[in-house]
């Protein structure tokens, strides 16, 4: 027996015996109860009531009822069944576009939320400073000082509607998530959403009024926007949602540009900064491999210097000389304008805290430079676009410009680790399995009986199925965030708008830059075969002739064996499965293993083909 786990939401499945138990003896419309090994949906035939007797319809409904009752019994076995499923690596590097690290000669880094890791306390600090500025400078009501930051409310990737004042979670195609639309702190129902927008889909004209909240500082901004709107609603005061956004945005910008946030962090670094020795190991490893490094940040030098000294104070040689890790250090770069402007670089005198007036036509070691532009940067360094990779957390300010300029890009998504751990959790997988089994039965019922011709029995079954589906969906959502759910997925398992932008601007993404320590600097990183959703989402379809099974088998074999042994075992597998050898160079070329870390160690997989690799793979580390 073996388990299957379908992609894009089709899921973890029960044991083979459970599948057999669900299959009716007589063939139903559209075929027997479909095995969840299949990826493509089976075409269903809508019964024509003028040709089929009502008793036959009742019989079909009764069969679906029987499958539902059998499924409920099968749910009891799912928790045990999902324990053996492969798990994704929370510290893995996930690939949207193939990337050869052996071609990368230059590594560039943002500072905030990339090299510097912050505690959740920072969002509270930004929130408090911004609300106080709005009260003191913009004359907002004194009661606004009582606002408290709620870290359980926002997620990254939301959009604020400047016209209507709503916080929206959008899916990959620009449609509003039904359970992800808030006016202030109140969730709007589907009818209210349609009254405001006419439809769930955001048109091009409406999209112009949306502001994406995409970086890691957006949590405090999203919460403050919602709290201000809610305050005006509770006070029954008229307001313009555009003005609220402008004021909140100005306040957030002020606390950064004025140095209030920077001084707050450096005054208590233990409260706001997180020390991480792996960052230093990653940077020194790159230097030892002969790579060029540069730091490109919007933050001022004194703030970066204070943070780096704190984070590296436990290292013997780099606390006071961290600049030696980088070939070029650029502060106050004014991204994203840096990528399109022609501003000149200015040399920064650290002792005098002033900018020099002489022209910068070369970057000298251990020196600091301000402002500048991508055009001047490339002219001075002679670093070609494809050999440069830039790490940043803001999809627009950090990564959109470099991707258009031909640089390779790596998005740092800190919440990725937690989301993957939730996806790996057996409780989440149990609810996911329930959701998709119920969804399948509900779809089968709708395809069998037209809405206008449903009997009382049919309607009752439909309500029961829908109730179970909504319960499972709600439980999955709350595991991530009670208000907006997962960052990368909608409640229905579709990709979010945030996932869309990652697809568009990030060649690879991971939770921290130091995760690259798990890979060789010469590794070839490839997009997993047959991607249906984000690369970090579990997707395995053990159909006997499904190429996704080949991918899974390759991952485990490559993770467990040496190159030659892996290739031999793969060829044995292909022969047993009537497959021919195909482009193994993508994973085995130059002795580089680039896919093995997609799955966590101490897992194993075997297929019924006769190639018994259980004992060899079991408990082997990647």
TrEMBL record:
Q: Does the keyword Secreted apply?
A: no
List the keywords (alphabetical). Answer: Hydrolase, Magnesium, Metal-binding
Q: Output the superkingdom of the source species.
A: Eukaryota
Q: Which GO terms describe its molecular function?
A: 5'-nucleotidase activity; metal ion binding
Output the InterPro entries linked to this UniProt entry.
Answer: HAD-SF_hydro_IG_5-nucl
A Pfam family recorded for this sequence: 5_nucleotid
The cross-references to PANTHER family, in alphabetical order and at most eight, read: 5'-NUCLEOTIDASE DOMAIN-CONTAINING, FI20020P1
The protein, known as: Uncharacterized protein
């Amino acid at each position: 027996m073996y388990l299957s786990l379908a992609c894009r939401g089709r899921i973890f499945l029960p044991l083979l015996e459970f599948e057999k138990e669900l299959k009716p003896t007589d063939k139903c419309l559209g075929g027997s109860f479909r095995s969840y090994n299949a990826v493509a949906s089976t075409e269903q035939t809508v019964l024509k009531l003028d040709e089929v007797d009502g008793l036959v319809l009742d019989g079909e409904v009764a069969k679906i009822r029987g499958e539902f009752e059998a499924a409920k019994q099968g749910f009891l076995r799912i928790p045990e069944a999902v324990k053996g499923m492969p798990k994704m690596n929370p510290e893995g590097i996930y690939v949207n576009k193939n990337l050869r690290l052996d071609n990368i000669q230059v590594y560039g880094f943002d500072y905030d939320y990339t090299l510097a890791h912050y505690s959740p306390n920072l969002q509270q600090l930004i929130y408090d400073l911004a609300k106080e500025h709005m009260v003191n400078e913009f004359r907002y009501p004194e009661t606004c000082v009582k606002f408290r930051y709620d870290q359980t409310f926002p997620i990254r990737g939301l959009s604020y509607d400047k016209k209507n004042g709503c916080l929206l979670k959008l899916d990959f195609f620009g449609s509003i998530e039904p359970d992800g639309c808030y006016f202030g702190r109140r969730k709007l129902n589907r009818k209210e959403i349609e009254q405001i927008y006419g439809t769930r889909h955001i048109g091009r004209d409406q999209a112009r009024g949306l502001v994406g909240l995409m970086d890691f500082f957006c949590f405090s901004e999203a919460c403050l926007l919602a709290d201000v709107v809610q305050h005006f609603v509770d006070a029954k005061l008229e307001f313009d949602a555009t003005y609220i956004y402008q004021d909140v945005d100005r306040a957030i910008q002020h606390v950064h540009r004025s140095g209030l946030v920077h001084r707050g962090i450096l005054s208590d670094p233990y409260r706001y900064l997180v020390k991480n020795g792996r960052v230093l190991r990653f940077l020194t490893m790159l230097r030892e491999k002969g790579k060029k490094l540069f730091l490109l940040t919007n933050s001022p030098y004194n703030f970066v210097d204070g943070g780096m000294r704190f984070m590296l104070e436990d290292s013997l040689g780099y606390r006071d000389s961290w600049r030696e890790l980088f070939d070029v250090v650029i502060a106050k770069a004014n991204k994203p304008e840096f990528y399109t402007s022609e501003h000149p670089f200015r040399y920064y005198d650290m002792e005098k805290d002033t900018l020099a007036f002489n022209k910068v036509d070369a970057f000298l070691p251990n020196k600091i430079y301000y402002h500048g532009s991508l055009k001047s940067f490339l002219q001075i360094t002679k670093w070609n676009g494809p050999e440069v990779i830039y790490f940043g957390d803001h999809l627009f300010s950090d990564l959109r410009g470099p991707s258009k300029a031909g640089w390779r890009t790596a998005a740092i998504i800190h919440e990725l680790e937690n989301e993957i751990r939730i996806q790996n959790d057996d409780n989440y997988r149990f609810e996911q399995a329930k959701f998709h089994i119920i969804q399948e039965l509900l779809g089968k019922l709708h395809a069998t009986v037209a809405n206008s011709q449903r009997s009382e029995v049919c309607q009752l079954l439909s309500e029961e199925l829908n109730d179970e589906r909504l319960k499972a969906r709600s439980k999955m959502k709350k595991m991530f965030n009670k208000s907006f759910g997962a960052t990368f997925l909608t409640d229905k398992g579709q990709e979010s708008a945030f996932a869309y932008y990652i697809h568009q601007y990030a060649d690879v993404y991971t939770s921290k830059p130091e995760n690259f320590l798990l890979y060789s600097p010469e590794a070839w990183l490839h997009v997993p075969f047959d991607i249906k959703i984000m690369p970090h989402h579990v997707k395995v379809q053990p159909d006997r002739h499904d190429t996704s099974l080949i991918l899974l088998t390759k991952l485990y074999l490559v993770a467990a064996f040496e190159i030659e042994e892996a290739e031999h075992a793969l060829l044995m597998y292909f022969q047993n499965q009537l497959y021919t050898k195909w482009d193994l160079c993508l994973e085995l070329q130059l002795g580089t293993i680039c896919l093995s870390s997609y799955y966590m160690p101490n897992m194993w997989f075997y297929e019924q083909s006769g190639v018994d690799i259980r004992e060899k793979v079991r408990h082997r580390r990647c």
